């Protein structure tokens, strides 16, 4: 037997599937609770059940496709996703209408709405992961600062067109998610920590300085910052940092905070507080209102378990490409959960993207299960090496 002989371990990740089943149950329950607020007509819970059945089927198909094939196919998928985003710029209003101030959706007769940004994020993870994998193959044994900057440039070039197309819609929430993908893969790409400290620490310090200046030096902010910004942007910032004093811009945040506060420790047994977009963007506020702090803690714990399962898959992968894919997915989900829950708690600005696996939405759910199918493919197609430790590229 060769020292490097390997065997396929084709096993389903039962733990991951069980966690996803729990998410399906929790999601449908709280969407049903959101329906009781009477904001919209229609049975969203039944539609969400249908979306979950479809999404689970897609996930099962995707996980049987060997993830290593994406090393060859990722540019085709990237080009396809980019074409869908670009198509929104030229599509007529009957196909790509403006919804909530953004032209981000295709309307497919008989099927509903389709948001290409959900799938572009998946294709971008596959592409950036392949770029990192191929770069380390090319520069094996010759890593230095120059090669690190070359890698950053390689990653930035395919990311920039995606950001520009999303910004023109405008969909700044998706722009932030693309940024989260880029940063998370940059962290695991192996570049110098000095570069990472500047690239990540600089923007974080700038945001912190902005928030401190907003409260400590309001007159200076008004004179030198807000006077040079669009009134819409100023109102969004005011609504985030002072939601109860700016009821127009901060209405959603104020209602979400009121709903969560009414839940206290065990939940609100009385009339539920009205929450705008309760079944989508602010589903966590419904959780807090119905089952209080304990309900919110349960949901957050469920997300920690999901991210832990993805981390285990990454650690068991025989292939560095699979590890990079898992890292990108962890970064995407962690930021999306952190931001969505943060906006419900008034800690972060309202961005308009959903809570993965919990909020209502076909495109979001199918896209999420698609990328989780790829993650499970990393586990399903893993290999064991006998009598030798396999060295990742």
From TrEMBL:
Key word Ribonucleoprotein present: no
Keyword Transmembrane: yes
One MF term in the entry's GO annotations: lipid-linked peptidoglycan transporter activity
Record's keyword terms, sorted: Cell shape, Membrane, Transmembrane, Transmembrane helix
Membrane-spanning segments: 12-32, 44-63, 75-99, 119-136, 148-166, 172-188, 195-217, 282-308, 320-338, 358-378
Localization: Membrane
Cellular component, GO, one term: cell division site
Matches recorded under InterPro entries: FtsW/RodA (IPR001182)
GO biological process, one term: cell division
UniProt membrane topology term: Multi-pass membrane protein
Name the UniProt record assigns to this protein: Rod shape determining protein RodA
């Amino acid at each position: 037997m060769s020292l490097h002989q390997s065997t396929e371990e084709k096993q389903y990740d039962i733990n991951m599937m069980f966690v996803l089943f729990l998410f399906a149950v929790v999601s449908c329950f709280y969407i049903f609770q959101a329906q009781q607020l009477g904001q919209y007509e229609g049975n969203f819970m039944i539609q969400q059940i249908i979306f979950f059945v479809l999404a689970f089927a897609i996930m099962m198909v995707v996980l049987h496709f060997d993830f290593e094939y994406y090393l060859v196919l990722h540019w085709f998928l990237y080009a396809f996703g980019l074409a869908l985003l670009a198509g929104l710029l030229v599509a007529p209003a009957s196909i790509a209408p403006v919804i909530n101030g953004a032209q981000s959706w295709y309307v497919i007769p008989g099927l509903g709405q389709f948001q290409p940004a959900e799938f572009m994020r998946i294709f971008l993870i596959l592409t950036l992961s392949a770029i990192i994998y191929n770069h380390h193959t090319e520069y094996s044994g010759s890593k230095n600062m120059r090669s690190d900057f070359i890698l950053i440039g390689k990653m930035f070039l395919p990311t920039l067109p995606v950001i520009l197309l999303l910004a023109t819609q405008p969909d700044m929430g998706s722009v932030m998610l693309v940024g989260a993908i880029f940063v998370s893969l940059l962290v695991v790409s192996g570049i110098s920590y000095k570069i990472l400290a500047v690239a990540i620490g600089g923007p974080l310090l700038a945001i912190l300085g902005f928030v401190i200046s907003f409260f400590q030096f309001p007159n200076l902010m008004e004179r030198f910052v807000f006077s040079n910004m669009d009134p819409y942007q100023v109102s969004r910032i005011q609504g985030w940092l002072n939601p109860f004093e700016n009821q127009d811009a901060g209405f959603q945040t104020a209602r979400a905070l009121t709903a969560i506060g009414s839940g206290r420790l065990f939940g609100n047994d009385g009339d539920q507080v009205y929450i705008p977009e309760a079944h989508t963007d602010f589903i966590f506020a419904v959780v807090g209102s119905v089952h209080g702090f304990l309900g919110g803690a349960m949901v957050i714990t469920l997300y920690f378990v999901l991210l832990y399962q993805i981390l285990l898959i990454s650690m068991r992968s025989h292939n560095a490409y699979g590890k990079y894919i898992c890292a990108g997915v962890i970064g995407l989900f962690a930021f999306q959960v952190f931001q969505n829950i943060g906006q419900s708690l008034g800690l972060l600005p309202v961005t308009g993207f959903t809570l993965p696996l919990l909020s209502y939405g076909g495109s979001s759910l199918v896209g999420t299960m698609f990328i989780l199918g790829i993650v499970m493919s990393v586990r399903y197609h893993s290999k064991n090496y006998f009598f030798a430790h396999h060295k990742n590229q």
